[in-house]
## 1
Amino acid sequence: MKTLAALLVAVALVAPAFAQNNPFNGMQLHRKTSTTVPAFKPIILHTGRPITQNDKMQVYSAATKTYTAKLPRGTARMSAPVAASYLNPSATITPLQLFKPGFVETYLRGPEVVDMAMSEIDFLPGSIAYSAMDFYINVNANTTYLLTFKIKATSKSSPEMQINIAPDSSGILTAATGVQRVDVAQGENQFVYAFIPSGSGLVVITMLSQNSYWQFESCEVTGTPAS
């Protein structure tokens, strides 16, 4: 009975925080905006060490060069000047702040643990429908997006993270929307995921692991004009 009482107290403490931080209390971008997809297969960098600013710049440069090479000759990237705040959105998603209105929202599918008091969100190994984390990102055309993930994997045997991108509003899957995998190590891991959308709209990214328990720690999301 003591254990049950303690559990009920913990739930009472966590539930209000989760309710306040529920992304569906925000703008619910995914219900209002048509979806788009990357213009090419996203680039992933995992070095086995903490990601540096230089790492981010290298990935940004690689993504932008790939995008530029795919543009028809003479295509203009930006048709008119726009506000810097629109061009350079940024957010840091954590267990205590799961969304930034108008830019990023998240959805937790079947998490094993959601403990706001301890700033902890844990996921089970399994399929995309079983235990995963969705990122709904409101993107602008001609913009390079970097997602810098920090996660903790607990499996001792070759843990692997998987990143999926949902198809666009037409429902057509392309090479850019295929599954990408990241081999990680037991314990703390950081990696960068970079893409440029094929148009303005909503990009839906899902992260999961099919072979390891894992913990979400943070994800920095930034958008910078592709130049």
Note: The chain has one domain: 2-71+85-225.
## 2
Amino acid sequence: MIQNIAQKKLYFIILLILLFFKNNVFDFNYYKNQYNNFKDNNIIEKNKNIKVAYYLTSIKFGGIARTITLLINYLSKINIFEHYLIIKSKKLKGEYIIPKKTKRISLFEKNITLFDVLEQEKIDILIYNFFNNDEIEKLNALNSTQVIYYNHSSFLLWIYKYIFNYQKSIYYAYKKSKYVLSLIPLENFYLFEKWGIKSILINNLATYNIDLIVPSNLDTKNIIMVGRAYDPIKRYDLGIKAMKYIVNEIPDSKMYIISNIYQKYIELIKNLNLEKNVFFSGFTKNPEIFYKNASLHIMPSLSETYPMALSEAKIFGIPTILCGLDYLALAKGGTVIIYDDNPHTIAIEAIKILKNYEYRKMLGKQARENMKKHKNQLIIKKWVKILLSVYKRDNKIYTITESEQDEKISENEAKKILNNQLKLLKKRIPFFKNISYNKFKYIFK
């Protein structure tokens, strides 16, 4: 009897493991076939892997570091590539984990340049994650190394940083570059075409696998804001001020800011008498406990590109309030978008969600459903396609597959989004008060 129970348990564990690998990790046959095809056709030399390098400041802080380390970890499971991490800083404590077989080179410790490394290591492909126009110009002149420019910014970010001049913008450099990755459909399929930039749409990898995450049950009155509180672009003051109205209607509501403490906001919390309702969690690389216990996510940012916090909240089935961020690839599904910078407007939507369980449950379900289109397995397949096309130096990289068609946006949708953003800019920046739609559309041309 005991033996039968033990056998059943073992069988169940093996079944779970098989299901995990079948549905949630990789289609290994796909990558094996890709690898063999390229070897057989002499596109990749018989005893050589493709050398891919990633250039970063460090792998300790920020969404870019998390995105790139996730990419290295996933691609390392495929025996086509040899990975190099080129960082500006020395090794830091508490970095994101990467495979041990990744060759790590610190420019600071070796006292060498990026170009020295590319030449010495004979790097085939560099994934570049900065916005240095002079450096991009030099990289574009290379013959032996192909460069992919991973654009982690939005054109609106530069506008909110008061860069309106095309010659000074990153887009002037991108126009002269062969391989640019875009994270925003509006830019990739509409604006970049008008500005003379050729780009490929990509989604960022998610921290969590949606098939392995149990969503929040949405039965708390907990609100979260996730990210760097000190960054003025995030505008967490709007969320904190909204809590003053929310608490009046829902006294037991709590807001958790998943970030290092920012003294300016501590003072704001005290001034609004919200010490019992708004809390800083401190920086954490494992925010799961907060997602599991949250019923609402607020993102009041001026600008975002492909925010990890939004993908994480949606994976956990948490509704999100966005302030005008309708151009994001993740903008649809489980979100409420407001075109107002008034904390009271944010509070009205938050109260509506927190007071109606069926409504927030519906939004949470929509959020999870939307994220199924952004599964890591699909994104990694696209990365393999991109890297192999770049290595081969063909133009198949720009071919839109059938599964990518739904990521395209129509001209009418693009026009609607741009008009929405222009209306917001007219409220936020005096320079745009008299700017027409046509001038705005070609601002970086």
Note: The longest strand covers residues 50-56.
